[in-house]
Amino acid sequence: MPRLRSAAPVLPVLDLAAAIAHYRALGFAVEAYAGAEQYAFAERDGVALHLSRWADHDPARTGAHVYLYVDDADALHAAWSTSGTAGRHVSPVDTDYGLREGAHVDPDGNLLRYGSPLRRR
């Protein structure tokens, strides 16, 4: 059976230029698609996200949800929450399933949850 090699969730956005600027401020390298579609490719540390302009997108109803496994949830929260980006930043907390998790909701209602393994104390 063929192996899966990677995945790239597609995040719906209302304003592609604003979304590109937002994800660049979060540290992603973002490149707009050269074709007629309003689409962009974001990449950071080997993790890919795609951004797609969707006229019928309703941030309260149709946002995407992505989980990112990271090395240090606290460091990512510190970087993202001081980046000057719009949206909502949720401070990391320890979970009972062994991860320290935080979150960011972008202006288009897309939820980026992230977690790192809890450090043994």
TrEMBL record:
Tree of life domain: Bacteria
Residue stretches spanning the membrane: none
The entry's keywords: Antibiotic resistance
Domain VOC: 3-117
Coiled coil residues, start to end: none
Pfam family, one: Glyoxalase
Signal peptide feature range: none
Keyword tRNA-binding set for record: no
Family: Belongs to the bleomycin resistance protein family.
Protein name from the UniProt record: Bleomycin resistance protein
